[in-house]
Design a protein that fits this description.
By secondary structure, the chain is α/β, with parallel strands linked by helices. The protein has 19 helices and 14 strands. 47% of the residues lie in helices and 15% in strands.
């Protein structure tokens, strides 16, 4: 086989969640910097989502093609209208939601859509032509690799994404049985629901390569009898380590007085219970003469971290300097964050970036999903992070972090983790391209 290796990146990016957007940026930067592939050997496809990468002012070294399977109902609706058939399908995600709620109309509509797509695929396999989505099937058939980049989107609370991605892989496998499915830095679970575990097991058996973010994810894979060769390599943002450390090296003189603060917009994070605690911590820092930056890691239509400030009065908010990557740009946002003397917050990637630059931080979490992300996913960086259940945070925790910042203690494991990951993923992509050429 000849020509470029066509890689379709799947994940939760381009949806105004900065952590997930940073993951795809990390991979694109890594491929450009360390893998001798470039545009001559790779043809990259991304999902368009809500287009948040554009607002981050990110410019890729690769040409990025957009491919969105969620457009299939739209394409079918357009054709049905042309055939004067009075039928209109809603979005795939809304149908999956309806089926999950045992809505009969949603189930019937989903079944009708599945029949149309199945007939189209059958016609395409026989004739290379289809009634509704021929051009989409043309694109999908030519994909050589599907790469699920890191993130925690295979969990009970995101059932519709789990089911949807299973259907995506099923369709791609039918069109191209030789397609390679890889996953890197995935945070899997919690998966307590029997149906979700069943679907994930069917889905994950298609992977040709799999690495996970933390030990809980690996344990879940083993419990389900999946991928005995899976490895724990950490979160994909670690691939951005050289760039993040380069930003840290340009530290300004004023950085010694800067503290990073973050609230993560997530249902399990009940900030109302600890509002007074959060306020006292921030005012404690302010009394010590610190400049406090509030770092938003999402905005509408994604998880809007800024709206969490509505919990507090205007006078309190005046103590904060607000930073938003979708306004500042991703690079300037990271540069400001890496200049911090210490950190206090609840977001996973907020915590990870501070850990990668050796910034002592106090991190809180709430609920089982974030317990796994924060307590397990950040366990590699415990030299620089103090992790607490969100109701245990106190001003004394912050005082300890400030004292640690004077020591400038770095974790010896960080650079070695990055080197292992770099070597592993260079080999992975070299093998993927070589397999395509055979």
């Amino acid at each position: 086989m000849s020509g470029k290796t066509k890689v379709f990146f799947r994940g939760a990016y381009n949806l105004y969640n900065f952590g997930d957007d940073l993951i795809i940026i990390s991979w694109l930067n890594f491929l450009e910097a360390f893998v001798d592939l470039k545009n001559s050997n790779l043809n990259l496809f991304i999902t368009k989502g809500h287009g948040s990468l554009f607002d981050l002012k990110y410019t890729a070294g690769f040409k990025l093609n957009q491919l969105e399977l969620l457009d299939i109902p739209y394409r079918i609706n357009r054709q049905l209208k042309g055939y004067h058939i009075p039928l209109c399908f809603p979005s795939v995600h809304s149908l999956i939601d309806g089926v999950g709620k045992r809505n009969i109309l949603s189930f019937c509509t989903f079944t009708a859509l599945a029949i149309i797509v199945s007939v189209d695929v059958l016609l395409y396999k026989i004739l290379r032509k289809a009634l509704f989505i021929s051009e989409y099937l043309d694109q999908l058939r030519k994909i050589d690799v599907v790469h699920y980049v890191g993130g925690g989107y295979f969990a009970d609370w995101l059932r519709k994404m789990l089911v949807y991605e299973f259907l995506v892989v099923l369709l791609l496998k039918v069109l191209n049985p030789d397609i390679r499915i890889v996953g890197t830095g995935l945070g899997i679970g919690p998966l307590q629901n029997k149906f979700n575990r069943f679907v994930f097991k069917l889905f994950a058996k298609n992977f040709n390569y799999l690495s996970v973010r933390e030990n809980d994810s690996l344990k879940l894979l083993k419990d389900l009898g999946i991928s005995s060769e899976a490895k724990v390599l950490g979160d994909d943002v670690i691939l951005l380590t050289p760039y993040i450390q380069e930003l840290k090296a340009t530290q300004k003189k004023t950085a010694k007085n800067h503290v990073a603060f973050n609230l993560k917009n997530f249902p399990d994070m009940d900030y109302a219970k600890i509002e007074k605690n959060i306020k006292s911590n921030v005012l404690f820092l302010k009394s010590r003469g610190f400049d406090i930056g509030y770092y938003c890691f999402g905005k509408k239509p994604g998880p809007d971290d800024r709206e969490l400030l509505d919990l507090f009065d205007r006078e309190f908010i005046k103590n904060l300097r607000i930073h938003d990557p979708y306004e500042e740009g991703w690079s300037k946002f990271l540069q400001n964050l890496t200049q911090s003397r210490c950190g206090f917050g609840f977001g996973f990637h907020f915590s990870l970036i501070l850990a990668l630059t050796g910034v002592p931080s106090v991190i809180g979490y709430g609920g089982g999903y974030y317990r796994q992300k924060i307590q397990e996913g950040l366990s590699f960086y415990k030299n620089n992070l103090s992790v607490f259940n969100m109701e245990e945070l106190s001003s004394s925790n912050l005082s300890d972090a400030i004292n640690k910042s004077n020591l400038k203690k770095e974790s010896a494991d960080l650079s070695s983790m990055y080197e292992v990951m770099k070597s592993e993923y260079i080999t992975l992509y070299e093998n993927l391209v070589e397999t395509h050429r055979k």
